[in-house]
Amino acid sequence: MVSLSWLMVLSAAIFAIGVAGFLTRRNILVMFMSIELMLNAVNLAFVSLGSRMGTMDGQVIVFFVMTVAAAEAAVGLAIIISIFRSRETVHADDLTLLRW
Amino acid sequence: MPAGLFWFLAALSVLSALGVVVQRNPVHCLLSLVLTLLAIAVLFIGQDAVVVGFLQAIVYAGAIMVLFLFVIWLLNLPAESRPTGHLALRFFGAVAVAALMAELLVFALPARLQIRAAAHAAGYGSIEALSQTLFSEYLIAFEVTSVLLLVAVIGAVALARRTTAAEMQERGAADKAEIEKAA
Amino acid sequence: MIELVVGAIEAILMVLIGLHLAIFLLYFERKGSALIQDRVGANRAAITGFGRKLGLPNLGIVNTLVADPLKLFTKEDFVPDGADHFLHGLAPFLALFPVLITFVVIPFGDTITVGGYTFNLQAANLNAAALYLLATIGIGVYGVALGGWASNNRWALLGGIRATAQMISYEIAMGLALVSVIMTYGTLDLQEMVRAQGGVWFGFLPRWGIFVQPLAFVLLLTAGVAESKRVPFDLPEGESELILGYMVEYSGGKQAAFMFTDFAEQALTAMMLVTFFLGGWQVPWLYRDGFHLPGGHLIAVAPLAVSLLGVVSFLVKVVVLCAFLGLVRWTLPRFRYDQLMRLGWKGLVPLGLANILVTAFIVVAAGGTH
Amino acid sequence: MNVEFAALALILVFPALGVLFNMFLGPRLGRKAVNVAGPGVMFLSFAVATVAFLRILAMPEGSALYFTLWRWIEAGQFHVELGLRVDALSAVMVMVVTGVGSFIHLYSVGYMAHDEDYARFFTYLNLFAFSMLILVLADNLLMMFVGWEGVGLCSYLLIGFWYTNPEFAYNGRKAFIVNRIGDAGFILGILTLLSALARHGVWTLDFAELKAHASMIGPSAATAAGLLLFLGATGKSAQIPLYVWLPDAMVGPTPVSALIHAATMVTAGVYMVARLNFMYMLAPDAMAVVATVGALTAFFAGTIAIVQLDIKRVLAYSTVSQLGYMFLGVGSGAFAAGVFHLMTHAFFKGLLFLCAGSVIHGLEGEQDMNKMGALRHHMPITFWTMLIATLAITAVPGFSGYFSKDLILEGAYESGHFRLWLLGAITAGITGLYMFRLIFMTFFGESRVEPDKLHHVHESPPVMTIPLIVLAVLAAVGGWVGLPDGLLWGDAFARFLAPVVGDFKPAVEASPAMLSAVATGLGGIGILLAYVCYLRMPGVPALVAWRAKGLYDLLLEKYRIDELYDLVVTRPLFFFSNQILNRGVDRMVIDGAANGAGLAVETGGELARRVETGNVQHYALVYLLGAIAIVAYYLYLVIR
């Protein structure tokens, strides 16, 4: 039986990686993927804790996270597409129109 | 779940996650991400969260990620020439991430995780158990989520659908009217 | 321990069954089509006229089962310039692998007892096998998609996109069909489902799923064919406009893998249909102790024989269904892409939803599954 | 006894409906609809008022009708209901307002027949009637004040009705501002009264309750409140020192002058004093002030009226003078007499204005009496009715003015104000002089009408003359409700009002006959003087003017009161406002503060906006820092 701690560490690690990716990648799509990474890290934490406590709640929450992620992906990607249509780029630091 | 499996999956997921972050080619990033998702899905199943695990594979890996793939193709993205130009951002980002990681690790210490391990009831993680919970105490949330999905679909269509020439024209006319009004 | 070994053996066995079915389909592709189109078909390669010496008609078995693979695997493995080498090589197996691992959850027989040991004739007895099916099929998309993308070829990419869109679209229809089935049987375990299909109604009608869920059967059949990208849903290949689509830049073993994937998927579809709707390994009127004929009298059969009969019936059903699919493949014309999508989204999906609704009502009316 | 009578609300509702109708539908539905609706609503509420009045008559004396609409203000113990109350006093007022008002509305139909803005005109006119009725129906001071302000507004709107003429607009503003001064006094008066009673724990402005607790008010508070309220009255009723707006108000359409500036609004002050008689009785000083101001106003306005040439101005000053009479009456405690004169004055002065309007109408807007004369043949009805009104105002025995004016002078004398009585009596003579001067210059002598107008000088249409006749009858016989005691039914009017305003208690004995003889005699002299100067030997006035030039000019320039105000009030005010408030406070302090704030924000923004790089990842980094901080906090909680 794997100790909960290691699961937590793993989830933390993936989360951190996701954060790093979001901060350092220029491509919006990849940043988006990094967000998905973070989401999954959290999901992992939920499921691990839930299974440790023997409750279903963790899994239910994961279920919701998935649904929301799906919605988010649909809208987010649509936004990216429309951005690309108007600006011909998906590089985060070229998309700084909303600035001083 | 057997320790060996766990360590394998852990290594796999971390490495592939890194792959998402470091690889230049979006498609490769995507594949690494899919790999991570699958590894995590197996981790779920390994903890008796069978249904959620498979859902993860079906919904996340099977559907959402394909959507990403489509978008990558649609935009015909080239491999990223260079990572972000802001060195400061990268530096501080690295520091901040390290700090966060450290904090989280403190939480993950066994001493901090004093959770009494409870035995899994029969059918734990099965679709029955999930549904029971989902449709009893989380019913409202469930319904709201359905509405959310509907809205998302509509929004996505509204955003991504290409405007027809006629619409373009009338929009242009409207803008011209605006400008003339302003002038 | 021994269970593990047996399980492994069963898995390999199942995969082999799948592969052989695929090969059978390949053969049917050659000769069956000839039959349908009133041609002779493949009949050249014969091992030193062996068959002819015996005066047998040449069924072209040799060249479909031996010569074609031989030829394919000895062809040059060509990778186009500017292609993504790694993915180009990975893609075909990414496509084939999921299908093959899917076979292991299909129950091909009842529990069999040999020398005090009882084995479940199902390689991997997952309690969420139905979901597993969907999952693996979903993963299968990537092979095709990446194959198309990695070839650095417009036609290939278009084919890949078509294939991906088509597959995820029809996965939904398939999933919905499965949901209604699952609701009917109240379990995700395929073995359970098959067991549930034992016995008869009104003394003669086998309790097969097809009689309960005819609509789901049609849906799953259509979706399955679409999943396997066979005619009339073979737009991704679309020889006439995309010259084999995502496969265009493949040759040799890789292409063989791709083609195998299609055939294997077809076989898988057949197995799924059999398992869900045609009573899996169930033989009409055959129970543990033998045949209970509608008339009422009993023909005793030995338990082991019963089990083997089950396996045989399973195989027979699958083969027949495969043949049927091949028949379809050679009779129907190809859809246009918009027609395909319309059928998928405006035809199957709504039907599936309606089916789910009705099923749910009936299940609840019948007092739930438990 | 008090009876609830819901129909009272209708008296208000009809004019209100008229306002809405004329405002929104009038311009669309056209002149006919407005001509029906405008006067129609007035006649309707006149009918209701009559019903109420008859009920009052039927009931035992001292009884009242009331109807409470809803509670308007509630603050601690203090609360004000929107309550309507009709007792003897307000019954008289309502009858006057609705009755005279109705006929003047009717008259306006003819008078405004050629004006484009008829809809607006009737909107304002109905609005005025509405406000005035609120004023008289109110059962508490605050609601009365609402009406008070309302009529002020309408008067402003109607004086400046022809606002395209800047002078008219200016006069409108003048009236409004002068009234504001008075109204300030009115508010202060209300507050004084309220606080005086509140000191004894009585929080009310209801007239009945005020009367019940009158004893608590105390003389000093009563005096203060009385004077302040009277200041308001001087504003509204054009008394010294605030009468200056009324003559200028004559630039408004003549029906307005008749209705607002003769018959109803300007008498609001008198009504208020009569309404609060119980309080004024407690403040003899205030009463004395009221009486004195009244008498002086009567006299001075009269003298000014002698030399005016504009027919409406003459009437305006005579109005001021008559109002002075009324205040003399109420000021000397003869409230009934004051109100009585108010009523009769409403009749004959309204009539006078309408006749003047008819004349002006006939002469296409000519107001200068030097350009009139010998009109009696051209417009007989106007002539005769105006003559009746003039006889009434000059208190020729038998006509309405006679009875009321006599009662006032009698009251003045008997209350011990001998000088004031003398002033009033002399004013009676002056009245005769200037009124008959007006008659003679307008209708007698040889015509001085400009030749081009002469041939189409015409009598006004029936819609205008009918009101003239009706009012003429009233002006003639309206006074008979208050005959001298002992004669027929005696002073029924005073008896009717007694329960509300109390009986007049003479301080000095005098013989009424004697007094009235003196006043009437003086009036006769005045008439005779006018006859001599303006018919027999027209040269005299010019001669007098030349001889007593200083006096003449003084009168002609209205004692230079306007100039005085300009010097004492306006210029210093302008100077202070411009130099101190505008240059100093406004530009430097306030603008400085505003600009300073703006500058601070702007510079701050300039610095702060640098944070907005627009790069998502920068924001994300900050976000992450926040997350780290939060986690750190929880960490602290856990570890501790």
Classify the secondary structure makeup of chain C into a structural class: mainly alpha
Q: Strand order, main sheet of chain C: write it out.
A: 5-6-7
Stretches with pLDDT under 50, minimum 5 residues of chain C: none
Distance between the termini of chain C: 34 Å
**Rg of chain C (CA only):** 22 Å
Q: What is the arithmetic mean of pLDDT of chain B?
A: 82
Q: Order of SSEs of chain C, N→C?
A: HHHHEEHHHEEHHHHEEEHH
Q: How many runs of DSSP E, i.e. beta strands of chain C?
A: 7
Number of helices of chain B: 7
Beta-sheet strand percentage of chain B? under 5%
Q: What's the number of domains of chain C?
A: 1
Shape verdict of chain C: globular
Q: Per CATH, what is the topology of the domain at 1-81 in chain B?
A: Four Helix Bundle (Hemerythrin (Met), subunit A)
Q: Total helix count of chain C?
A: 13
Key features of this structure:
heterotetramer, B: 183 residues, 7 helices, D: 640 residues, 2 domains, 3 strands, 4% strand
Describe this structure in words.
- The complex is a heterotetramer of chains A (100), B (183), C (370) and D (640).
- The longest helix of chain A has 31 residues, at 57-87.
- Chain A has one domain (4-90): Helix Hairpins, CATH 1.10.287.3510.
- In chain A, 78% of the residues lie in helices and 0% in strands.
- With 100 residues, chain A is an all-alpha fold.
- By secondary structure, chain B is mainly alpha-helical.
- Among the domains of chain B are: 1-81, NADH-ubiquinone/plastoquinone oxidoreductase chain 6, subunit NuoJ (Four Helix Bundle (Hemerythrin (Met), subunit A), Up-down Bundle); 138-183, no CATH class.
- Helices cover 76% and strands 0% of the residues of chain B.
- Chain B is built from seven helices and no strands.
- Chain B has helices at residues 3-22, 26-46, 50-75, 87-108, 127-136, 139-160, 165-182.
- In chain B, helix 1 packs antiparallel against helix 2 and helix 2 (26-46) packs antiparallel against helix 3.
- The termini of chain B are far apart.
- Chain C has 13 helices and seven strands.
- The two termini of chain C are 34 Å apart.
- Chain C has one domain (78-119, 126-365).
- Chain C is mainly alpha-helical and 370 residues long.
- The longest helix of chain D has 48 residues, at 561-608.
- Chain D contains 27 helices and three strands.
- The N and C termini of chain D lie far apart (82 Å).
- Chain D is mainly alpha-helical.
- The mean pLDDT of chain D is 87.
- Chain D has helices at 8-29, 31-58, 88-111, 118-137, 141-159, 166-198, 207-212, 214-217, 219-236, 245-248, 254-263, 268-275, 277-282, 284-307, 311-331, 335-362, 380-393, 400-414, 418-443, 451-454, 462-477, 492-501, 512-536, 539-547, 549-556, 561-608, 616-639, and strands at residues 2-4, 64-75, 78-86.
- Chain D folds into two domains: 2-556, no CATH class; 563-639, no CATH class.
- Chains in contact: A-B, A-D, B-C, B-D.
- The A-D interface holds A 19, 22-24, 31, 92-93, 95-100 and D 609-610, 612-617, 620-621, 624.
